[in-house]
Amino acid sequence: MKKRGIALLLSLIMTSSVIAGCGSSSEDAGKSTASAATDKAVEVTAESSELTLPLSDKTETISVWMPNDPTAMAKNGGDYNNNPYFKELEARTNVHIDWQVPAAQTESEQFNLLFTSGNLPDLMFYSTGQNIAYKDGLDAAVDDGYFLDLTDLLPKYAPHYLEALKKSSENVQKAAVTDEGRYVQIYSILQTSQPSFFGYVVRQDWLDECGLSTPETYDDWENMLKTFKEKYGATAPLSTVPTWLWNLGYGMGVYNITDFYQEDGKVKQALLDEPEKVRQFLTLMNKWYTEGLLDPDFASETNFWGNSVLVSNNNTGVTCTMYTIPSALFLPSMNDDNAAFSALKYPVQNKGDQLKAGYVVPDTTNSWVISADCKNPELILKWIDYMYTEEGALFANYGKEGETFNMVDGKPVFTDVISNNADGLSYDEAMRLYTYVPSWPGVSYDWERELQFVSEDDFKMCYVWDDFDHEATYYPSYASLNLDETAEYSDIFSDLSTYIQENLLSFITGSKSLSEYDQFIETVKSMNLERVVELKQSALDRFNK
Fold first, then answer.
1. C-alpha span between 511 and 448 (Å, rounded)
2. Which of 32, 45, 119, 169 sits at a 20 to 30 Å CA gap from 360?
3. Using CA atoms, how far apart are residues 24 and 21, in angstroms rounded to an integer?
4. Residue 92: left (phi > 0), alpha (psi -120 to 50), or beta?
């Protein structure tokens, strides 16, 4: 497919936003104005807020490209249209979906092939985090004639989405607008902020049996791991993947060692800005590895949510996981009735030190983009906008009232169809069939629904992990590079990132001596890491404006 030339310039840019007919308060309006993504905003009128079902008098078909959800696909005979949720959604809207679903693990490759096929689906899943994105960025995709600029269409056909966007965080509002001031993506947006949902857990029963207090400092952690190794014969007292291991450097002031962070608006990279702190961290991790306190196979570990085999065999006492995993996966696989897990904060150097980094849960997840070839974008936007109405959001998150949920004291409560499925489906499997699939784009997402299946003690772990300064070092994931920056960034950082990762692992395992660390830093500088920081700074500066 040849590029189609420069798209039409942005046309509908207003200096104020009016959210009417949707129940917004003056407080909400003030927040929207104060935290607007740019000095410009699209206008939403009371007339445009109306949405009537069905969306069409006759059944209309739209083509949708969506990644493969193995769980849902395995339970629905390989067709999302077999999901009870999508059957009911079609009945309500009169919109039939022609799903285009690539084989699992081929999504990124297949998405890129769409642009050479000459036949783009009407609606497409889009996620830079999953590498399902146009290589030159959103503005380029519009200019090249692939994606539709939605700025003119959203006020009339997706006002409820815009209302949710105006009430979201400032970061989300900024992210929703491209560098050229266009609205191209349609996000899912969390109804409420979510605390950090993953971090390190410890065998609390082991701590109690050993008379140990919850560890705070690196020395406390080292003593704990040694005790677990000696008393319980743990072969991997600390079990984790490299990505989570790097987070243990936060307490030393080593932030995002393989990536970037910011302080007071200045982009930094630990190897450039804090090389001695990185050396200190690597020295400690090498010590733990050499003394058998760190899983000898950590460098090749791929299970991001904890190695359940090591856990069930009592070979590890500390691992990194998600708050739902210990009760749902770890404990059922163990033969020890006394086993228990509790959350650990990242270690610090001195008792009482405050952490300046951790996992910040984005207020939005993945997004939709609409093909510039789409014949009826108005219908698609109405279809998406339904998931942002009060009725549509309730249906998307909880399914059909009287079937998958009932209202109890004014709140939706799942029935046994979800919580105790007669076909043996777990609650996660059932939700992927009877509700809008979690993590999919284009919905006002109520993450708190999952708390119906999580104990209070398990959820308390999130507040332990969330106890850090969220703004101190966080580089917003929404700060995007422009076309020229993306090309230069990829050219430099693809090889550099691999070099950094390989050497960090080598220093920890001892396959490379720390006496070579200074030369490593010089090589990193010679590979133009400073220039990559400059590119990230440009993206952050634009985002902050």
1. 45
2. 32
3. 8
4. alpha
Distance (Å) of CA 128 to CA 193, 485, 531:
21, 15, 22
Residue 282 and residue 290: Cα distance in Å, rounded?
12
Look-up of token digits 């207020």: 363
- pTM > 0.85: no
In sequence order, what are the beta bridge partners of 127?
Answer: 132
Kindly list the strands in the beta sheet with 364-370, ordered across the sheet, starting from the edge strand earlier in the chain: 95-100, 60-65, 123-126, 364-370, 186-190, 444-445
Distance CA 351, CA 442 (A): 44
Q: State the first-to-last Cα distance of the chain, in angstroms, to the nearest integer.
A: 35
CB atoms within 10 A of CB 129: 10
For residue 364 the two structure tokens come to 């939005």
Structure tokens belonging to residue 159: 């006002």
Helix (H, G, I), strand (E, B) or coil at 321: strand
d(CA 18, CA 29): 8
State the residue for tokens 């642009």. Answer: 115
Q: How many CB atoms lie within 10 A of CB 420?
A: 12
Q: pLDDT tens digit string along 490-513?
A: 899 999 999 999 999 999 999 999
Q: Which helix (H) or strand (E) holds 96?
A: strand 95-100
Q: Kindly report the CA angle at 440 between 439 and 445, in degrees rounded to 5?
A: 65
Q: Determine phi and psi for 401, rounding to 5 degrees.
A: -60, 140
What is the distance of C-alpha 106 from the center of its chain? 20
Q: CB under 8 Å to 219, separation ≥6 — which residues?
A: none
